[in-house]
Amino acid sequence: MAADDAIGGDVIITKDMKPWEGCGECHDLDGVAPNGHFPNLAAQKTAYFLKEMEDFRIGKRANDHGQMGVSSRETTGKTLDQIAAYFASLLAPTPQPAGALATIEIARARLLVGHGERAARIPACDSCHGPRPKHEFVAPCLEAQQPQYLEKQLDDFAAGRRTNDPDGVMQKIAQRLSERDVQTISTYLASLARQSTACGAER
């Protein structure tokens, strides 16, 4: 009987699956990705999740192997809303230790994240990503994110491989950051607590 039921390909595999279970194959069902190749989705902003899925769907954003383009085209409407709400409702990821950073590097990261560096024309990360953003961009929560993922996104923005940022703002910022700044900021942000989908972590 089991063999008979298996006839028909993957129908038996996907039957009765929740909409978000497919996402869990890479991002895990608790929204905490198993490695730095994928982002943590737990407690991420619903609006940002929906924006990125739309960008993937229309080809404004791409990932290395194209899975997100396929997934975004197959997942729309009410189903997509359910997935976004599911991940937004999850407990925030556990911050990762910043032990690799020296005291001076932590101070540098706090400066760039909280205040920016005017001389280098680098605005504060918090201007868009913090608990009280100064702009209306739909920006993601960055706290407790995979540090390797953050590094890659900044590298991709700097190199022009990722271009779905409003007015090219992230591309400009990433190009002004040194390689060490990218590593330091990524490690520091990963060590912060993501308290809610409002990105209300204490610095």
Strand content: under 5%
CATH class identity of one domain = Mainly Alpha
What low-confidence regions span 5 or more consecutive residues with pLDDT below 50? 1-12
Structural class: mainly alpha
- Give the rounded overall mean pLDDT: 90
Shape: globular
CA distance, first residue to last residue: 58 Å
Q: State the helical fraction.
A: 40-55%
CATH architecture of one domain: Orthogonal Bundle
- By CATH, the superfamily of one domain comes out as Cytochrome c-like domain
Radius of gyration: 18 Å
Main sheet properties: none
Give the number of DSSP strands: 0
SSE order in H/E notation? HHHHHHHHHHH
- Summed up, the helix count is 11
What name is given to the CATH topology of one domain? Answer: Cytochrome Bc1 Complex, Chain D, domain 2
Description of the molecule:
- With 203 residues, the chain is mostly helical.
- The chain has a domain at 103-190: Cytochrome c-like domain (Cytochrome Bc1 Complex, Chain D, domain 2, Orthogonal Bundle), CATH 1.10.760.10.
- It is 47% helix and 0% strand.
- It has eleven helices and no strands.
- The chain has helices spanning 2-6, 11-14, 24-27, 46-58, 67-74, 77-89, 103-114, 126-129, 147-159, 169-176, 179-190.
- Helix 4 (46-58) crosses helix 6 and helix 9 runs antiparallel to helix 11.
- The model is unreliable at 1-12 (pLDDT under 50).
